[in-house]
């Protein structure tokens, strides 16, 4: 009688195939983790860019039609020549608009996706009829987005010398007035 050989895999063949599978899984997991890290970094950058653009556009829209502008580290009173005035209160983690005694939150640390915002406003140029605005978005001390530009001051009253820029780096209060 002939002996029949049973077909199947030997222990060595099973072990080799398991080692190959483990190596393939580890390589693919490294690629996936790297891809997810790149995706999350890009998501943070996109969120910072969106937030920075929104803040820049908000301030630019408000100041481009202002008749008077006072930028300082304390709230200021306008001259009273213009019927409406608003105040923008800014620090690194919070921005609010104060209108007729009511404070409206524009952004806070939670709405900035963990980023901080720094706003720099430079002197108004009478010749160019504009001011420089720079919005810097940072995360963990690293700058992730910067937007800088000139704001055209369309209604600014250059005859009114009720204008100043404070030097406070931590907090800025922008008070401005407009006709309507």
Task: Break the fold down into its secondary structure elements and pairings.
Blueprint: H1 11-64, E1 68-72, E2 84-91, E3 94-99, E4 102-108, E5 116-125, E6 130-139, E7 142-152, E8 164-165, E9 171-178
Parallel strand pairs: 1-8
Antiparallel strand pairs: 1-9, 2-3, 2-9, 3-4, 5-6, 6-7
**If you average the pLDDT, what whole number results?**
81
Strand content: 35-45%
Query: Low-confidence spans: pLDDT under 50, at least 5 residues?
Result: none
What topology, given as strand order, has the largest sheet?
4-3-2-9-1-8
Radius of gyration: 29 Å
Helix content: 25-40%
Q: Estimate the global geometry from the Cα principal axes.
A: rod-shaped
The helix/strand order is HEEEEEEEEE
How many strands in all?
9
The secondary-structure class comes to: alpha+beta
What does the main sheet amount to?
A: 6 strands, mixed
Give the distance, in angstroms, between the N- and C-terminal Cα atoms: 109 Å
Q: Please count the helical segments.
A: 1
Overall description:
- Strands 4-3-2-9-1-8 form a six-stranded mixed beta sheet, covered by helices on one side.
- The chain is rod-shaped.
- The termini are far apart.
- The chain has 180 residues and is of the alpha+beta class.
- The relative contact order is 0.22.
- It has one helix at residues 11-64, and strands spanning 68-72, 84-91, 94-99, 102-108, 116-125, 130-139, 142-152, 164-165, 171-178.
- The mean pLDDT is 81.
């Amino acid at each position: 009688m002939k002996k029949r050989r049973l077909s199947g895999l030997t222990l060595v063949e099973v072990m080799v195939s398991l080692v190959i599978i483990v190596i393939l899984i580890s390589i693919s997991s490294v690629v996936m983790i790297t891809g997810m890290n790149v995706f999350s970094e890009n998501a943070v950058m996109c969120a910072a860019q969106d937030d920075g653009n929104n803040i820049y556009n908000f301030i630019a829209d408000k100041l481009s039609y202002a008749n008077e502008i006072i930028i300082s580290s304390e709230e200021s009173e306008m001259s009273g020549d213009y019927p409406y005035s608003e105040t923008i209160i800014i620090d690194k983690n919070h921005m609010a608009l104060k209108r007729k005694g009511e404070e409206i939150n524009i952004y806070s640390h939670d709405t900035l996706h963990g980023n901080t915002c720094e706003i720099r406003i430079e002197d108004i140029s009478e010749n160019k009829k504009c001011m420089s605005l720079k919005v810097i978005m940072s995360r963990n001390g690293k700058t992730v987005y910067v937007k800088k530009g000139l704001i055209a001051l369309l209604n600014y009253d250059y005859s009114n010398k009720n204008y100043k820029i404070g030097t406070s780096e931590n907090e800025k209060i922008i008070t401005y007035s407009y006709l309507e």
